[in-house]
């Protein structure tokens, strides 16, 4: 069984740039959720994708967007980066039908915006 | 507003002592609550959820709707319990609302 993998592990960008983060879901999972975790805080829900459609969204501006592919992998895109976007971005996969409680997390991508 | 509060950022106990990690929530609907744990150099993982009424690694958590709490308890802490613990509340829009976390240190 393959776990959730995220790439890259670390990334440095400058303000105003765009970034794409990638996530491969755990084998057999068809749902992917993205979270932002600022230093000293718990993860904050960005959005969820199920069967290639957005299936719920947190309180994040439209410059945060995503995609899910037929193999259930996913991308998180952030445009016009701001300094406050510096955080750990976590991807979690789950199997729809069990609710979103059984989340299997990746190790995250640490994004630094300078 | 729906939120989860973990009042203690840090908690330190001695091995063999009881431990209680506090979690309070604010939610108008019927709550679904969870505890997630992150051990050193490992990824975040589910510890337990209230609907299962299970005990994992000796930990239990009881939902108290009157006090809007879901405290995590273990009667005898072990050194391997040292980790970051997050309480989480599941919302209708597939949002999982996490608390800020409590870092538990179990001293020998």
Q: How many beta-strand elements of chain A?
A: 11
Specify the number of helices of chain A.
0
What's the overall geometry of chain A? Answer: globular
- Low-pLDDT segments, ≥5 res of chain B: none
Largest interface: A-B, 26 and 22 residues
Strand content of chain B: 35-45%
State the helical fraction of chain B: under 10%
Low-confidence stretches of chain A: none
Q: What is the number of strand segments of chain B?
A: 11
Terminal CA distance of chain B reads: 40 Å
Number of helices of chain B: 0
Biggest sheet descriptor of chain B = 6 strands, mixed
The Cα radius of gyration of chain B reads 13 Å
Outline type of chain B = globular
What distance separates the N and C termini of chain A?
38 Å
Instruction: Please state the average pLDDT score of chain B.
Output: 93
Assembly state: heterodimer
Q: Provide the residue-averaged pLDDT of chain A.
A: 92
- Secondary structural class of chain B: mainly beta
Q: Assess the beta-strand content of chain A as a share of residues.
A: over 45%
- SS-based structural class of chain A? mainly beta
List the helices and strands and how they pair.
The complex is a heterodimer of chains A (114) and B (108).
Chain A lengths: L4 E3 L2 E4 L5 E6 L6 E7 L6 E7 L2 E5 L6 E5 L5 E5 L8 E8 L9 E2 L3 E5 L1
Parallel strand pairs in A: 2-11
Antiparallel strand pairs in A: 1-3, 3-8, 4-5, 4-9, 5-6, 7-8, 9-10, 9-11
Chain B lengths: L2 E3 L4 E5 L4 E3 L2 E3 L5 E7 L6 E5 L10 E2 L10 E3 L8 E8 L5 E3 L3 E6 L1
Parallel strand pairs in B: 2-11
Antiparallel strand pairs in B: 1-4, 3-8, 5-6, 5-9, 7-8, 9-10, 9-11
């Amino acid at each position: 069984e393959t776990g959730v993998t995220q790439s890259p592990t670390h990334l440095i960008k400058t303000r105003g740039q765009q970034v794409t983060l990638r996530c491969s879901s755990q084998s057999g999972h068809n749902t992917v959720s993205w979270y932002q975790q600022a230093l000293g805080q718990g993860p904050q829900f960005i959005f969820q994708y199920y069967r290639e459609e957005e299936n719920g969204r947190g309180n994040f501006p439209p410059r945060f967007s995503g995609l899910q592919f037929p193999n259930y992998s996913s991308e998180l895109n952030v445009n016009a980066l701001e300094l406050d976007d510096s955080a750990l971005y976590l991807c979690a996969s789950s199997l729809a039908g069990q609710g979103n409680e059984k989340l299997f997390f990746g190790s995250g991508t640490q994004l630094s915006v300078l | 507003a729906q939120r989860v509060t973990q009042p203690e950022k840090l908690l330190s106990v001695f091995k063999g002592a009881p431990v209680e990690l506090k979690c309070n929530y604010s939610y108008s609907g019927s709550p679904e609550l969870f505890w997630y744990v992150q051990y050193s150099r490992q990824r975040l993982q589910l510890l337990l959820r209230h609907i299962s009424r299970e005990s994992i690694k000796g930990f239990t958590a009881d939902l108290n709707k009157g006090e809007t709490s879901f405290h995590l308890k273990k009667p005898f802490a072990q050194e391997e319990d040292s980790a970051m613990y997050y309480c989480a509340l599941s919302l209708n829009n597939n949002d999982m609302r996490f608390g800020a976390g409590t870092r538990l240190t179990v001293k020998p």
